[in-house]
């Protein structure tokens, strides 16, 4: 509980800090990029050495700009717009995107238990979380292996996963056959900026962002991992008893409503 509180305070502090810095930093980068662009134009055909240097400077600045945009999105803590979302439908709707993100050498499988369970979440936030988990799985598998996304439901007791409150939860479990994590890594994964990936590849914000999202949704997150064998990250989101479309049409935006 202590560690979790520290985690949340740290997320808060990072949010405030990055919000203040990222915005100004992005403006400065725009100046740098503008300068490079002008220099390239004056230099005409950028096919020689100077042109190459300018290109790599632009590439670096663009990468830095992408990172600050991620930091801004992280700091902004955009207001969540919760609605009834069927976990199964949301994940099926992402399958093309996930296939494309993971490439041909990774087999993707989705497993849903028979009923369609609803959660009360910000749809965009949940999609983001799942995509982030899929990207982490891809990176852990070094381009080949199997990814499984499973939805289901479970009843948890008080504190049986993290700080959860007793109740019914929808589970979304993302499993990979990748490199796995050591206990030391598992202990630190929710820390903002903790990453084991090379500079330019990892930001260390993925899991801390998911952690924040899941906390705000009243859920929990669990990790089971074995070095060399693979990892399962499970999101536990409070189960929502969805009203029938006729009674609350706005709760089910994807349902085809009779005119
Ligand atoms: P990033 O992906 O940018 O490094 P994350 O917060 O998403 O940031 O992840 C932090 C670290 O946790 C990763 O650098 C990696 O070491 C570890 N990790 C996350 N997901 C997995 C996974 N599926 N398999 C193995 N390690 C993982």
From TrEMBL:
The chain holds residues 265 to 523 of 656 of the full protein. Residues 20-241 form the Histidine kinase domain. Signal peptide: none annotated. It comes from the Bacteria. This is histidine kinase.
């Amino acid at each position: 509980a202590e560690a979790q509180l520290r985690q949340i305070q740290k997320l808060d502090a990072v949010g405030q800090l990055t919000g203040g810095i990222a915005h100004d930093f992005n403006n400065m980068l725009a100046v740098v990029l503008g300068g490079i662009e002008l220099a390239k134009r004056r230099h005409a055909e950028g096919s020689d050495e100077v042109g190459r240097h300018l290109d790599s400077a632009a590439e670096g600045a663009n990468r830095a700009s992408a990172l600050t945009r991620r930091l801004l999105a992280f700091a902004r803590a955009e207001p969540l717009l919760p609605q009834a979302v069927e976990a199964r439908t949301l994940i099926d709707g992402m399958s093309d995107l996930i296939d494309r993100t993971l490439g041909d050498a990774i087999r993707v499988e989705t497993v849903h238990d028979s009923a369609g369970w609803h959660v009360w979440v910000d749809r965009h936030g949940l999609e983001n979380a799942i995509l982030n988990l899929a990207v982490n799985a891809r990176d852990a598998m070094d381009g080949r292996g199997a990814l499984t996304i499973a939805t289901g439901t479970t009843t948890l007791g008080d504190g049986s996963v993290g700080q959860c409150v007793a109740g019914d939860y929808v589970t979304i479990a993302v499993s990979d056959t990748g490199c796995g994590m050591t206990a030391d890594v598992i202990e630190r994964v929710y820390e903002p900026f903790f990453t084991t990936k090379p500079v330019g590849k990892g930001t260390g914000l993925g899991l801390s962002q998911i952690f924040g999202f899941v906390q705000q949704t009243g859920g929990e997150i669990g990790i089971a991992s074995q070095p060399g064998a693979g990892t399962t990250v499970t999101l536990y989101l409070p189960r929502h008893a969805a009203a029938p479309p006729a009674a609350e049409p706005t709760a089910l935006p994807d349902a085809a409503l009779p005119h």
